[in-house]
Amino acid sequence: MSPGDGEESPAGPDREPTKGGIRGEAGRAVGATERRSRWRRWIGRFGGVVSRTGIAVRGALGRRDGKGVFVLVTAAYLLTYLWAIRHLALSGTGGVEVFVVDDPLGTALEQRSAFAYETVAVIEAGPVVYLFGPVNLLLGVGLAALVGVTLAVSVVSWRGPAACRLGAGAGASAGLPGLVSGFACCGPQLLVVIGVQASAGVIAAMQWMVPLAVVSLLGTLLWVGSRVDPTAM
Amino acid sequence: MNHSRRRLLAALAGSGAVGAAGCLDRFGGSGGSAEPAGSVQADLGVACADTDGTVELSGGRRPAEIETAQGTPSTSYDDGEIPLRDETLHLGHERTAFVDGDQSGGVGHDGIPSVDEPRFAPAAAVSMPACERVFGVSIDGDVRAYPQRILVSHEIANDVVGGEPVAVTYCPLTGTAQGFYRGGTGFGVSGRLVNSNLIMWDRTFDVRWPQVAATATEARNRGDRGGGEELVGRSLREFRLVWTTWERWSDRHPDTLVMTEKTGSARDYNRDPYGSYTPVSGHYAVGEPRSPSFPLLADPELDGKRVVIGARTSEGAIAFDKRTLLEESVLTGSVGSQSVVAVADEGLATGYVYADPGGVDVTPTAEGYSVDGDIAAAGELPLERIVAFDAMWFAWNGFYPDSERVGL
């Protein structure tokens, strides 16, 4: 193992400290330097993964198949998300009607539950009823784009001959928590309808679904990006 | 908005709702719809078969702008003053059980927004299928109906009826619609539940009021001015809300006003997140094997979704099986040391509970009920009426496990 590659410094916490004096201070200084150095290495590695992921994303979206997957998956996910949070339904009865609340800007920022904000308009067109909630639409677009880009990269890398260390299933698995997070706002109602006991723990866990989905989607995207050979895209 | 609801009658027979043609044939009189045997459904004891029709509940005006309504308060209350009962209502548990059993319903404070400026239209100006569920109220000749399809998205409407500031409340999880006098404050949805039931908060003190108990369980000090500890343990004054169908209510009260969809919120009133009453499905279905979804304060033992008409006083509680009451017309029991009598209102398919001073002979007649020889309508017997309301059995039993049971 090379020095600094995970090895504790001689002045690290396991060594018996000297009684004050120059040697103790020097040891602490060396330890701090080593920690800074370790952080720099981690940041460097992370930066490399991000950079590599960026290249992979640009490469995937630059290809026709990647772009197609991205658009299709993002759109499908967004529609599913809006349906899951009950902003989109086929409950209309024909005709076109629009209703906007009195103070749309102020209303849009009123939080109703974890990651669920107030809707400001009802748009009814034929059989479709859409409740326009700007914050949740933005959230849905963000989640959908993350799922879409992850799947696009993984599909492109799976199809590319020199970058087939990755299966498309990685992207699909990344999309699952994001999809589940769509139920976060209406989870309790869903539990009532399907008759599942909603304990305090389940309710609390539901409030963490959106951030967990974002973290898992970002993590998967970086993992996918780190495994792809950018030169092969 | 103009919404249509078209359902095939044939679907009703297979809807899983419990058929009750035998008892419900009796209620096809005033206010009842033509209900052919075999296609009748009785979800919550309210017989209804005709779900066909169009919903037109747009527009509307504020009650204060309607001549036939008394939408301006005629009683003055201090800011934040809440009308209270002299005696606290019976609680089936120690008050701390309600605090300990309080849990998140998954939404925040006011996460389900109350309707604070309801608008109304006269019955003649709206259109609803006969089977639409409404919660009816009549105070001092001011008659209103609050459609379940709207209130399910808000749970509370702060209104002024008959010159009295009131809160019309509905908890879809427990199937309870209750009316409260709100005085100089308003009520909101706290986002918390106990025994699967809505916990309201008053906007002055942020005191927590479980709907069914109607009694303050704790003060959270998040209201406009804090405090409110002196309210803990006190009970709200209530009035009767009638759970019935649009056809029955509008036949009884052709001059009724109806709350419209102009609530100020952007909602899809075509969709009920918990199920449907037309026809009955999801959480509302009687006999559903699905258990109530939030922890209960007591095991229901019986079918949790069957509907009772419950009443409580400071002495105790009593539950009448709604279907049995509709079949038998008159049932008796006791609340603590007080004898009570329940009578069915055939036209509205509901029931009323009265304190019986003892020895009063109440018998059904073709014109109404005979009380010691005098004839009176079900809702107007010359006895002291006790506020009663429909509830799913699991909810009533959870709040009042010591309740007397009649017909259960």
Explain what this protein looks like in three dimensions.
- The complex is a heterodimer of chains A (233) and B (408).
- In chain A, strand 5 (121-125) and strand 6 form a beta hairpin.
- In chain A, the strands form 2 sheets. Chain A has a 4-stranded antiparallel sheet with strand order 1-6-5-2. Chain A has a two-stranded antiparallel ribbon with strand order 3-4.
- Helices cover 61% and strands 9% of the residues of chain A.
- Chain A is built from 8 helices and 6 strands.
- Chain A has a domain at 42-70 and 134-232.
- The model of chain A is unreliable at 1-20 (pLDDT under 50).
- By secondary structure, chain A is an alpha+beta fold.
- In chain A, helix 1 (21-62) packs across helix 4 (134-159) and helix 4 runs parallel beside helix 8.
- By secondary structure, chain B is mainly β.
- Among the domains of chain B are: 63-239, no CATH class; 307-406.
- In chain B, 10% of the residues lie in helices and 33% in strands.
- In chain B, the strands form 9 sheets. A 5-stranded antiparallel sheet of chain B has the order 5-12-13-14-15.
What's the helix and strand layout?
The complex is a heterodimer of chains A (233) and B (408).
Chain A: H1 21-62, H2 64-84, E1 88-89, E2 96-100, H3 104-108, E3 111-113, E4 116-117, E5 121-125, E6 128-132, H4 134-159, H5 169-181, H6 187-194, H7 200-206, H8 209-227
Antiparallel strand pairs in A: 1-6, 2-5, 3-4, 5-6
Chain B: E1 2-5, H1 9-13, H2 21-24, E2 41-42, E3 47-48, E4 53-56, H3 95-100, E5 103-104, E6 120-122, E7 133-139, E8 142-147, H4 148-151, E9 156-161, E10 164-171, E11 176-181, E12 187-194, E13 197-202, E14 207-210, E15 218-219, E16 238-239, E17 242-245, H5 246-252, E18 257-259, E19 275-277, E20 280-282, E21 307-312, E22 317-321, H6 322-328, E23 330-335, E24 338-345, E25 350-355, E26 362-364, E27 369-371, E28 374-376, E29 384-386, E30 388-392, H7 393-399, E31 404-406
Parallel strand pairs in B: 8-18, 22-31
Antiparallel strand pairs in B: 1-4, 2-3, 5-12, 6-18, 7-8, 7-17, 9-10, 10-11, 11-16, 12-13, 13-14, 14-15, 19-20, 21-22, 21-30, 23-24, 24-25, 25-29, 26-27, 27-28
